[in-house]
Amino acid sequence: MDFKIDRRVKKTKLSLKNAYIDLIEQYKGHEITVSMIAQYADLNRATFYAHYSNKEEFLEEALCELLEGLREAILTPFENKNRINVNSLAPTTVQIFEYIEKNKREFYALHNSHTDFKKRMEELFYHIFSKDILIETKSTTGKVNYEMFLHYQTKATLGLIFYWIQGKFQYSAKFMMDQLTTLSNTQVIDLKKI
User: pTM for the full model?
Assistant: First the structure.
């Protein structure tokens, strides 16, 4: 009996989430009401309120689930290893872009409607690369301050991801992975006035 109820709850929540994702492609986040979400999901408002107290709680759960999935994807290459050589394309980079591409409609919807989306993405990346994965660095010009490097790397990677989301995923995950690798290994040689 519990299993049947649990499946029904999951199905209802998925219907609500899919309805919201469809609606965000037609309306701005603040324009979408609980009534619109429920109606689009072919449910009533009471069903929505049986699971969430308001739209913000609904969006928060969607964001938490999405970020937990991203966290798991990033850590997947480390399931059976404690060290990964990153001579070219880092496996974490592959996992990041493939997961985002697979869930692009959700990322787009939450990027455009959850007020803390960017902040929470940054917190997730910073936490993973300060608590779960250590990035070993080498510099020929001086000692690297890991804290500063982590902020720099996080902001650069997320800047590229946000650019990709804002552009409605006009490039493939493979292209974005290649670009991140290329950009990370690009050396600035001169500045020239235009």
Answer: 0.86
For 49-87, b where at least 16 C-beta lie within 10 A, e where not — what string?
eeebeebeebbbebbeebbeebbebbeebeeeeeeeeee
The CA-CA-CA angle for residues 76, 128, 166, to 5°, reads 90
Judged against a pLDDT cut of 60, whether residue 73 lies above it is answered with yes
Amino acid at 170: Q
Alpha-carbon Rg for the chain in angstroms: 20
Task: Convert the pLDDT of each residue in 32-51 to its tens digit.
Answer: 999 999 999 999 999 999 99
> What is the spatial distance between Cα 82 and Cα 29, in angstroms, rounded to a whole number?
41
Sign of CA dihedral 132, 61, 123, 24: positive
Taken in order of first residue, the domains within the chain and their CATH numbers are 1-52 (1.10.10), 60-184 (1.10.357)
